[in-house]
């Protein structure tokens, strides 16, 4: 059976992509410079070893939010032209669905027309057309086990169709979805070029990323090979970086950086985006390609095998599973910086606060305050419902652990509420609400 490789003309925009499993974060680097040797240790509390050096984080996020709203309208209009015969819907606990916005473009300095090749092979391309998520089931039945979830515009290869169900392959997942929630064939190919985004895969087990495109710059965070990251700007220029430094960086942030050498070497670096913040990484340690999002695999958390578990422990486990099930209902819903609505838009801490408030547990409003308020647990003792805290120089992002190395979190304007590898970046702390 012949596979197609979709090669299309499009603006150089970016879109989020895919899920991969959890790796052990044992770091072993063979190259110096942009990556340094490191090793994960159990997390007993907040470890702050870095200082935030770049300014204007709030200003940058506000600009991103404004641009995202404008760009969402533009792409939604383009998607509507493609989907004008399809009324999108969702399969989510039997709720009525509706067509969703097609997503947002990433910030670009000056979008240019260029030829791109989408990294996806298919016999018949399908794109999920849902407001938040579509269940992938083991068998073609609404009662069958859920083995994965697809959010809006996740891509799949449609293997066959029968009785209103499509057998699909999306990433590592092969299963069944209801056909009416897919845009298929030629319509999907036309839409694919509008929602494809340039993504970066890390080529080492973990990779140190930096505040500026220089090995002299301070380390922002560590990224995992088990996640793909949005490429904010593939081709940096000296002029662009001079403006970036002027707008976003203080004198303190660049005092140890040879700026002239940095400007001469910027073509060997790329700007990535993580949780609405911009970071830089050497191109030597990443692979960049245009891709579409794929389904996320869903596995049931393994129950403890010990027969000595108390009934209270079993009850607590059951309660935590209920919290995760509730949180999963909002998968695919929008991210809004400063928002607290689980349905209409929330940021990361508003999401975790809203989930736990539903169960009578009250958390502070911000991620940093939540981290400070919760007791720490070791990474070797993590349980579903625990909160993972991330940041550089201090906590700035929070996510909920859902088991099997996965978290659910309100990530950014592009992806909304999504599922990720729990170690897509290095956690500063794991906390347990009580």
Structure report:
- The protein has 434 residues and is an alpha+beta fold.
- The chain folds into 3 domains: 73-196, SH3 type barrels, CATH 2.30.30; 197-291, SH3 Domains (SH3 type barrels), CATH 2.30.30; 317-431, Alpha-Beta Complex (endopeptidase fold (from Nostoc punctiforme)), CATH 3.90.1720.
- It has 8 helices and 24 strands.
- The strands form 7 sheets. The protein has a 5-stranded antiparallel sheet. The protein has a 5-stranded antiparallel sheet with strand order 15-14-13-10-16.
- Helix 1 runs antiparallel to helix 2 (185-195) and helix 3 (238-248) packs across helix 5 (259-265).
- The longest helix is centred in the N-terminal third of the chain and has 26 residues, at 57-82.
- The protein is globular and about 65 Å long.
- Mean pLDDT is 78; it is low at 7-59, 82-91, 93-113 and 305-315.
Offer a few descriptive terms.
434 residues, alpha+beta, endopeptidase fold (from Nostoc punctiforme), five-stranded antiparallel β-sheet
**CATH superfamily membership of the largest domain:** SH3 Domains
State the total count of DSSP E strands: 24
Residue fraction in strands: 25-35%
Question: Widest sheet: strand order?
Answer: 8-7-6-3-9
State the gist of this model.
By secondary structure, the chain is α+β, with helices and mostly antiparallel strands. The protein has eight helices and 24 strands. Strands 8-7-6-3-9 form a five-stranded antiparallel beta sheet. The chain has a five-stranded antiparallel beta sheet with strand order 15-14-13-10-16. The protein has a five-stranded antiparallel beta sheet with strand order 23-22-21-20-24.
């Amino acid at each position: 059976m012949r596979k197609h490789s979709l090669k299309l003309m499009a603006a150089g925009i970016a879109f989020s992509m895919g899920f991969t499993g959890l790796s052990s974060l044992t770091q072993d680097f063979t190259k110096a410079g942009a990556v340094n040797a490191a090793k994960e240790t159990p997390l007993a509390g907040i470890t702050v070893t870095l200082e935030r050096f770049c300014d204007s984080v709030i200003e940058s996020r506000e600009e991103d939010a404004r641009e995202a709203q404008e760009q969402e309208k533009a792409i939604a209009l383009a998607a509507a032209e493609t989907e004008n015969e399809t009324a999108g819907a969702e399969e989510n606990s039997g709720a009525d669905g509706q067509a969703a916005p097609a997503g947002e473009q990433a910030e670009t300095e000056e979008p240019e027309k260029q030829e791109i090749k989408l990294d996806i092979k298919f016999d018949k391309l399908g794109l999920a057309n849902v407001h938040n998520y579509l269940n992938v089931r083991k068998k073609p039945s609404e009662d069958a086990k859920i083995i994965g979830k697809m959010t809006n515009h996740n891509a799949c290869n449609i293997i066959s169709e029968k009785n209103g169900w499509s057998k699909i392959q999306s990433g590592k997942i092969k299963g069944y979805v209801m056909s009416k929630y897919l845009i298929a064939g030629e319509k999907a190919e036309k839409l694919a070029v509008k929602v494809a985004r340039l993504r970066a895969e890390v080529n080492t087990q973990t990779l140190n990323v930096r505040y500026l495109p220089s090995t002299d710059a301070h380390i922002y965070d560590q990224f995992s090979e088990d996640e793909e990251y949005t490429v904010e700007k593939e081709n940096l220029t000296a002029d662009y970086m001079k403006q970036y430094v002027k707008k976003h960086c203080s004198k303190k942030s660049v005092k140890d950086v040879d700026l002239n050498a940095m400007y001469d070497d910027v073509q060997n670096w790329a700007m990535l985006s993580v949780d609405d913040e911009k970071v830089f990484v050497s191109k030597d340690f990443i692979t960049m390609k245009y891709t579409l999002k794929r389904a996320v695999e869903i596995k049931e958390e393994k129950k403890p095998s010990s027969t000595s578990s108390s009934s209270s422990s079993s009850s607590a486990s059951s309660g935590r599973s209920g919290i995760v099930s509730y949180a999963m209902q909002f998968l695919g819903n929008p991210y809004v910086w400063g928002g607290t609505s689980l349905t209409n838009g929330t940021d990361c801490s508003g999401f975790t606060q809203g989930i736990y408030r539903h169960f009578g547990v009250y958390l502070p409003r911000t991620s940093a305050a939540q981290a400070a308020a919760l007791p720490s647990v070791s990474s070797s003792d993590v349980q579903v419902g625990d909160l993972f805290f991330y940041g550089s120089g201090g906590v700035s992002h929070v996510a909920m652990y859902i088991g099997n190395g996965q978290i659910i979190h309100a990530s950014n304007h592009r992806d909304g509420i999504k599922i990720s590898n729990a170690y897509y970046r290095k956690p500063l702390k794991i906390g347990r609400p009580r």
